[in-house]
Design goal:
It contains ten helices and 15 strands. The protein is of the alpha/beta class and 384 residues long. The longest helix is centred in the first third of the chain and has 19 residues.
């Protein structure tokens, strides 16, 4: 672990990356925020805008079949390839809120568009918080106006605060490498599962990105789709990439992937009540689907998670979880010689687990959080 943004040993950023003040957004972007009472304290409405008249963008949204209203609006209304702005509120998920919830999310886009002189289709909307509660639009809409009034190029920290809920620390960065600047803000701590999470992430850059959709999907697949805190897939997950191309330079190879992976690991390390993060690597699986299934079964096992929390190198729990994921497979028992769980017992904030199946050549890995007392306390009292 290091003190900089790239502080996980599991992240390998490109050479020559310079860390800048995360409050300062990439050139051509401004952000602002306001407090309207959705959370107990702190900024809870945020606005992000690209000042360039043309921007290439991409959205990756939750795969949850019961997607929240803002996700549905992004799918139905927003021009995902050319998003100029994003409006966000934290404290209320606006999920399972029916037609009114959809209308409210759309109204947020419209209000932001009017304040910025844009079309509604140019504004993405994202929301996070408690499910099933109507949104107090009489507070949210004026908050959007207030956020628009204090937009600033150094508004990254304000915007980062506006998207958090149970997060214990901000997850943001501004970096420069290869003649380009990239800034990013993320939130997430609970209801986290591969194939996205209860998380929001916004990435801005002045780099040229030829195919933002492919670039973002590739980076998400190797980062946010590789994490789990509690095995729960959210209704609200949203990742937005905006690229102006103003620098005239492409993103350095691996930079976007490294940024999103570090943010994803920050989400795992900030998992509700989490003390440690783990990485399980499965090799020798019969095929990719099997490797994924076994890795995720181990990462989501409460017994493995509590062993990570308690620093208990109990390899039997890993064998049990893997075997449960391989029901019906023709194979020998999984023994101690196939598992390396030594780091579970180490005094380290990150621990590796390795499992060798000997059934083929496929492999997969998942990053996961431990499970301790604080997770139960926080989630048992989340709305009370």
């Amino acid at each position: 672990m290091t003190d900089g943004f790239f502080r996980s040993r599991w992240v390998d950023p490109p050479a020559g990356v310079e860390e800048l003040d995360p409050a300062q957004l990439a050139p051509g972007f401004r952000a602002g925020g306001a407090y309207v009472g959705l959370k107990g304290e702190g900024t809870d409405v945020g606005l992000l805008v690209c000042d360039a008249e043309w921007v290439d963008s991409a959205l990756v949204l939750t795969r949850n079949a019961s997607a929240a209203a803002p996700v549905r609006v992004c799918r139905d209304v927003v021009d995902q390839a050319h998003v100029r702005a994003a409006v966000v509120q934290s404290g209320n998920a606006n999920a399972e809120t029916g037609e009114q919830g959809y209308a409210d999310a759309l109204a947020m886009c419209g209000r932001a568009a009017a304040a910025l002189g844009l079309e509604t289709a140019q504004v993405a909307v994202a929301e996070t918080g408690v499910i099933g509660v109507p949104l107090p639009m009489d507070a949210v809409l004026p908050g959007i106006d207030e956020a628009a009034a204090n937009l600033a190029a150094d508004g990254g920290a304000v915007f980062s605060a506006a998207i958090t809920t149970t997060d214990r620390w901000p997850k943001h960065c501004t970096l420069r490498a290869g003649g380009v600047t990239i800034s990013a803000q993320a939130k997430g701590a609970g209801m986290i599962q591969p194939n996205m999470a209860t998380m929001l992430c916004f990435v801005q850059t002045d780099a040229v990105v030829a195919d933002p959709g492919a670039a973002l999907r590739r980076a998400v697949d190797s980062s946010f789709n590789r994490i789990t805190v509690d095995g729960q897939m959210s209704t609200n997950d949203t990742v937005l990439l905006q690229a102006t191309g103003a620098s005239g330079q492409p993103l350095p190879a691996g930079l976007l992937e490294a940024v999103l992976l570090q943010l994803a690991i920050e989400v795992v390390r900030d998992g509700e009540g989490t003390a440690r993060a783990g990485r399980v690597e499965v090799t020798g699986a019969a095929d990719q689907a099997e490797a994924e299934r076994v890795a995720r079964a181990i990462a989501n096992s409460p017994l493995v998670k509590t062993a990570l929390y308690g620093r208990d190198p109990n390899w039997g729990r890993i064998a049990q979880a893997a075997g449960a994921a391989l029901v019906g497979a023709d194979m020998d028992e999984i023994g101690a010689d196939s598992i390396d769980a030594t780091e579970l017992g180490a005094e380290t904030p990150e621990a590796d687990i390795a499992l060798r199946l000997g059934r083929g050549e496929a492999r997969a890995h998942v990053y996961f959080a431990d499970l301790g007392h604080e997770y139960v306390t926080l989630n048992a009292e989340y709305t009370t």
